[in-house]
TrEMBL record, chain A:
Enzyme class: hydrolase
Family: Belongs to the ABC transporter superfamily.
Keywords: ATP-binding, Hydrolase, Nucleotide-binding, Transport
The keyword Lipid biosynthesis appears for this protein: no
GO MF term list: ATP binding; ATP hydrolysis activity
ABC transporter domain boundaries: 2-229
Lineage, highest ranks first: Bacteria, Pseudomonadati, Pseudomonadota, Alphaproteobacteria, Rhodobacterales
Classification via InterPro entries: AAA+_ATPase, ABC_transporter-like_ATP-bd, ABC_transporter-like_CS, ABC_transporter_ATP-bind, P-loop_NTPase
EC number: 3.6.3.-
Database matches in Gene3D superfamilies: P-loop containing nucleotide triphosphate hydrolases (3.40.50.300)
Name of the protein in its database record: Thiamine import ATP-binding protein ThiQ
Domain of life: Bacteria
UniProtKB/TrEMBL annotation, chain B:
CDD domains: TM_PBP2 (cd06261)
Record family assignment: Belongs to the binding-protein-dependent transport system permease family.
Transmembrane segments annotated in the record for this chain: 59-78, 90-112, 118-138, 213-232
The keyword Transit peptide appears for this protein: no
Gene: ssuC_3
One Pfam family cited in the UniProt record for this chain: BPD_transp_1
Lineage, uppermost ranks: Bacteria, Pseudomonadati, Pseudomonadota, Alphaproteobacteria, Rhodobacterales
InterPro entries in the record: MetI-like (IPR000515), MetI-like_sf (IPR035906)
Protein name: Putative aliphatic sulfonates transport permease protein SsuC
Species of provenance: Ruegeria atlantica
Amino acid sequence: MTPAPDLTVRGSAAIGDALLFAPLTLTLAAGRWTCLLGGSGVGKTTILRLIAGLDTGAEFTGQIRASDGQSVRERVAYMAQDDLLLPRATVAQNVLLGARLRGEKPDLRRCDQLIERMRLQDHMAKKPGELSGGQRQRVALARTLMEDRPIVLLDEPFSALDARTRADMQDLAAEALQDRTVLLVTHDPGEAARLGQSIVVMTQNGITPCQPPHATAPRKVDDLETLETQGALLRLLREEAA
Amino acid sequence: MKLLSGLAATLFALAIWQAIVSATGLPKFILPGPALVAETWWQNRWIIAEHTWVTAVEVIIGLACGTVLGVVTALQLANSRAARVLVQPMLVFTQALPVFALAPLLTLWLGYGLWSKVAMAVLIIYFPITSSFFDGLMRTPPGYLDLARTMQASRRAMLWHIRIPAALPSLASGMRLAAVYAPIGAVIGEWVGSSQGLGYLMLLANGRAKTDLMFAAMLTLGVFSILLDMVVRRATAGIAGEMR
């Protein structure tokens, strides 16, 4: 893995004649978590998909650059709200999917370590259908870590989970993805307040950087400043939408 | 329970059949009763078995060839835009031709024996297999393709590890349709020209006013089709689970 770079997205996107987002500059600091918070349809997922090099249906004018000048899209790992596990493959096979798709020799030892780290060692040979939602998302996280990329793109990966499982997953992911350049796209102000080392609110009017709480992420769920930040972020979202 | 309800339905159908025979008093060469058909079936069981074997072989070879052809065609269509432009309209056109109209031609080309019937069965199932598998290949849930792209999967790897597994349930439903259609194809082929098979036996019995034998052959064909359907269902059960 190359050291995690800074990442800068500069430009605007349009669908046909309609502007999706006006010219903006979003910088993701190297080795840190940036939470991009916003409502539906403001283009936050589009930004994530642009970085990943995926189809967006929108036309992007601008550039996406890594501070070390190397290619971006070949160094990203991607995790979505849907766990995207192959239903007929076992947990271990799902974790090894990337190597299989690239025709590489799978690193079985690393796979075992990651599965153990995600506390899935009792489920290695199971199919995704036999797992709970939280366990499935842990498999998806193990698969993401298996890719061992310096840039990690998370598209609302925890939003389908119940509150307790979501908090557990946030802790696990924050710890596991340390020192990588992470972009977390979310519509949950609480999640942004817990995990963001920098927090950016995106609305129709553009992006607004916000002050994250002082405590180290992942912050305690009952940390006062985190709760205040959550409130402030929600207020900002509501004002901008009005 | 399922067995019991099936038995009840069979008895009910037999009762209606017998009631019609009794009520109308139709002569047995127009409508034979269930008891007579059963008796005729038993008396002719070895002849019927022989002809059933012939039809079964035609159907099974046809099913296998048609499935392979359909799968290969669907993969080609999914893999190449040129194939879609050139071949897809042709496929639709062949489907628009009534298979009945092709049967004499196939007998002319492939002869009186096994292969003209296999060809009929293949023709009749080729389209359902191709189109269902092709649809499945083109409707991979987009999230999986996104994930594979971020993992730098080649087109080939994506097809093999993502799109084909996701399309297997569609292929399974195509194969179940095929299992129902394939016997129809073989029997049509036998009607047009043959000296063996259940279709031939039905035609022969009909020509000699042995309506009871014709019914016996027809019911045998029905039972064979149901058994085939059950076998294919069981065989495809493993691949029928949907990918979300």
